[in-house]
Amino acid sequence: MTNRGQFNSRLGFILAAAGSAVGLGNIWKFPFEVGAGGGAAFVLVYLFFAFVLCFPVMVAELAIGRKTQRNPVGAIKALGHQRWVGIGYLGLASGFLILSFYTIVAAWAFGYFVEILLGNFEIGNHFTAFTTNWLKIGLFSIVFMGGTAYVVSQGVGGGIERAAKILMPILLFFVLFLVLYALTLPHALTGIEFYLRPDFSKINGEVIYKALGQAFFSLSLGMGALITYGSYVSRDTDIVRAAAVITLTDVSIAFLAGLMMFPFVAYMTEGDLLQMREVSGGAGFIFMTLPGIFQSFGGLLGVIIGATFFLLLTFAAFTSTISLLEVPTAYMVDELKIERKRSTWIVAGLIYLVGIPSMLSTGSVDFFTQFITFPGTGTLNFMDFVGLLANDTFLPLGGLLISIFTAYVWRRNNFAAEIAVGAGKGGFLSMYVGFAISYVCPVILGVITLVTICNNFLGVDISGGLF
Ligand code: PHE
To answer: Which of 320, 326, 389, 394 to mutate to test the pocket of ligand 1 (most atoms within 8 A of CB)?
Structure first.
């Protein structure tokens, strides 16, 4: 076998996979979905899906990767099921598309870090001016993509693993630092209460649907990122335990992000519940409202807290973009036999080009800003369109196909045998994984895929208003 590289240690692998999982999804999106979706009630639904549905899919991806030591396309071929190879290509397409716009949002975070470091807190009031300044965003996103490509070009052990080993501890430290600071703010406890007080009346079909999508995206599932990372894992690793640790880490960081964000919200609104509900609104909040809050901490402290926050966001995004870029890179290396450095830069360049319309879709160019209208979505800009296609549709579809493939094509006994390698005699978790991948995952992911397609693209509400 060609020298594809390997993770040097179990810890390195877990940090890299957790790095893939922990991203903009955890820190940017999660807290506000919780706020909007019934606080602790949403967290419970999210946790349920993370462990009951996502965890088995993660084990399946890791097992396919480790068994075959190939990228998603090569892996399906290597298992001898050429007809299912579309799963691999779907994964490549998802990675390609997600990375194209994810880089742009990451570039905003990176740009904010630089601006705040320079003392420019006004940036929050000029969000649109900032995102439509294509020269600046172009530059920040080139640097970001260049950094990602550099790490990936250095290989699995020397690049990806090393970056994760450096960045993940820093990331954790930043989160804890910001949580501790946020908890000292006036009204912090009101914020936490708003974040976590369970309101079960808010749990409806849509909230469940959101929690599920969030868990799936946040754990980097459905596109073969973890097939690819799994392909660099040694055979003495217990992948069931590893997947449990990765899931727990991801969920914990998302939870901590909420503990940091809601005291900020409460501080700004002086604990006014109604206002808290109004301001906490995803993209808008982080990029438009937060800089002003940081400014109000005053002088150097504001710069330190603000810069730390946006650096945290940048690092979280970075370890995710590394895994997104690794998927098509591994494909080029394994299947097209193109040397890694070269593969990396070619793919990164292509994805960067595909991302340009997203970069121009927040107001710079009308054509991309009002790109397309579906019956169920209203008019979407290019970036949201790609998000709808890749995040909301391709990922659950990919997860569905991976589950069916694992349980019924590769077959459950082969899957079980692969899990057992490095794990000794399988316990309850392994048994559950086998059961879930055959029944729970295909059913739930099938429903989600169907609902997404019908509701958004066709505008047909097949759930009777439930979602
Ligand atoms: N899990 C990442 C996040 O939460 C996004 C991601 C999805 C990364 C799919 C890799 C693959 O931001």
So the answer is: 320
Ligand 1 atom at minimum distance from 317 CA = 12
Give dist(CA 316, CA 323) in Å, integer: 12
**Could you read off the pLDDT of 339-360 as tens digits, one per residue?**
999 999 999 999 999 999 999 9
User: Which candidate, 110, 73, 134, places its Cα nearest to that of 314?
Assistant: 110
- Ligand 1 pocket residue status of 214, Cβ below 6 Å: no
Q: Which residues lie below 8 Å from residue 152, measured CB to CB, with a gap of 6+?
A: 159, 160, 322, 325, 326, 329, 344, 348
Q: Which tens digit of pLDDT belongs to each residue from 149-162?
A: 999 999 999 999 99
**Structural tokens at position 233:** 């894992």
Instruction: Output the CA 21–ligand 1 centroid distance in Å.
Output: 5
List of residues 6+ apart from 382 with CB closer than 8 A: 357, 358, 360, 361, 368, 369, 371
Q: Is the CB of 320 under 6 A from ligand 1?
A: yes
What are the residue ranges in the chain where pLDDT is below 50? 1
Instruction: Assign a CATH topology to domain 10-358.
Output: Hydantoin permease (1.10.4160)
To which H or E segment does residue 48 belong? helix 40-49
Instruction: Identify the residue whose C-alpha is closest to ligand 1 atom 6.
Output: 220
Neighbours of 379 (CB within 10 A): 12
Domain boundaries, the chain: 10-358
For residue 466, what pLDDT is reported?
55
